[in-house]
Amino acid sequence: MEQQSSVLMSAKIHFVDARLSLVHIPLNQYQSYLQSILKLIFPAHQSHGELGTASQPHEPGVSWANQYAFLNVSVTPIECSIVCTKVLAEKLFAPNKSTAETSATTSREGAVVSLEDFVVMSVEGEGLEAGKRVLELTSPLALAGISIFFFTTYFSDYILVPAKSKKQVIRALEDRGFQFEERAEAYVNPAARHDRNKSSTSSFGTISPSTPPPVTVSELQARTFALLKRREIIPRVDTDIRLLQCAGRRDLPSSFTADEMGLQVGLTRCLVYQPRFLSLTLTSSEPASLLIERKLIANFDSENVLLGNKEDFLVPIMLDLEPLPLEATGIVCGVADRLCGRSDNGVLMNAIEMSYLSTARTGTVIVEEKDLKHAIEALRVEGNDALEC
User: What is the DSSP letter of 234?
Assistant: First the structure.
């Protein structure tokens, strides 16, 4: 697989060689698409071209979780969102649109498959806290006016960008002082160091095409929150949803087969009954990563099939970005800048540890339960209060 690598601080960034599509499914039509979602996650007959990898499904020695170059399936209280190869998006979801439309009761809209192609960058490394890492990764792209979707997983961060913007992404990194080394095909910032903790993200909209781009992150943050206020987008919190960041277990060779089966069975049970919150990320190089509601762990016959702390709960703060265009830019960076300790007047506050999950029409900030009140206060748009379900 041909890839272009780079190093941000001590983090290694590379483009995954796959053309991806973004799929939005209204929640009231989730059951109409359930079989397609299960076929997507557990492929039986897809070719390597459809999967975006060089491996065939069920190839000996290849975990079912490593058959995709990149796949994300997320179900939230606002929508179901999928990132998969363009071929599979059209094969599994576009044909079902008319069927789902006829069965809809509150909306005629079926699955919406993006017309635009996307590519994804994988970010691996160590150094900064998760929230500051989100800021460092997204600020050069936001200031360049590039729209992004951000995913924090158990092991890595992933940034989805329009395929047409790939060269602009590279230029934005170079313009921020990253040196391109032709021999190593890498970008290196020798002055900074990067850390790997938890983190995740969504699409961000701030700048209209006719508006000159901001020149500083502080200005971008101010524009972001002004836009959220203007479009009446307010943080939404459901304190009944408690999340865990987990991953499939692959550290016990003696129980590998049983753990693989246990993870598949548990995931299927979760999906069949339409979870309130579940985000699954599969890649070709890492075990399955899950951001999952704590109560859903009961669907797994044993908690031991999942890696991760089962006691430290996370809470999602959701921003419904449906009023914004898909190509909106700057929100992930603006939100991260506010939570990392800087208010819109430049005053430094106590930083909040955060991660981010982007879905087709939602940006979800993930914080620890103990930081929820502080985070809501930081994200509150003047004149609007957070909605607590």
Answer: -
DSSP 30: H
- Name residue, tokens 């049970």: 269
Q: Six-digit token pair at 76? A: 């939230």
- Can you read off the two tokens belonging to residue 281? 């990320």
Question: How many angstroms separate the CA atoms of 40 and 27, rounded?
Answer: 18
* Token pair in block for residue 210: 């006719």
CA dist., res. 113 & res. 116, Å (int): 9
Alpha-carbon distances of 256 from 62, 245, 262, rounded to whole Å: 12, 21, 10
Q: Which residues contact 288 (CB under 8 A, 6 or more apart)?
A: 65, 247, 248, 263, 280, 281, 282
Collapsing DSSP to helix, strand or coil, 170 comes out as helix
- The 10 Å Cβ neighbour count of residue 28 is 14
pLDDT for residue 363 is more than 60: yes
**Six-digit token pair at 366?**
């993930």
pLDDT at residue 56, rounded to an integer:
52
Helix, strand, coil percentages (3-state) for the chain, rounded to 5, are 35, 25, 40
Strand, helix or coil for residue 7 = strand
34, 304, 72, 147 alpha-carbon torsion, rounded to 10°: 140
Candidate from 29-33, 251-255, 273-277, 377-381 with smallest mean pLDDT: 251-255
Listed residue (197, 154, 146) closest to 138, CA to CA: 146
User: What is the Cα–Cα distance from 339 to 79, expressed in whole angstroms?
Assistant: 25
Matching residue, tokens 């995913």: 151
Asked if residue 150 has pLDDT above 50, the reply is yes
Predicted structure pTM score: 0.84
pLDDT at 302: 86
State which amino acid sits at residue 305.
Answer: V
Bridge partners of residue 280, in order along the sequence: 73, 290
Question: Could you give the CA distance from residue 379 to residue 229 in angstroms, rounded to a whole number?
Answer: 11
| Distance separating alpha carbons of residues 309 and 351, to the nearest angstrom | 22
Q: How far apart are CA 81 and CA 216, in angstroms?
A: 32
Helical axes 130-143 vs 166-175, angle rounded to 10°: 110
Strands 289-293 and 80-85: unpaired
For every residue of 94-124, DSSP letters joined together read GGGHHHHHHH-SS-----EE-SS-EEEEEEE
Q: How far, in Å, CA of 379 to CA of 355, rounded?
A: 14
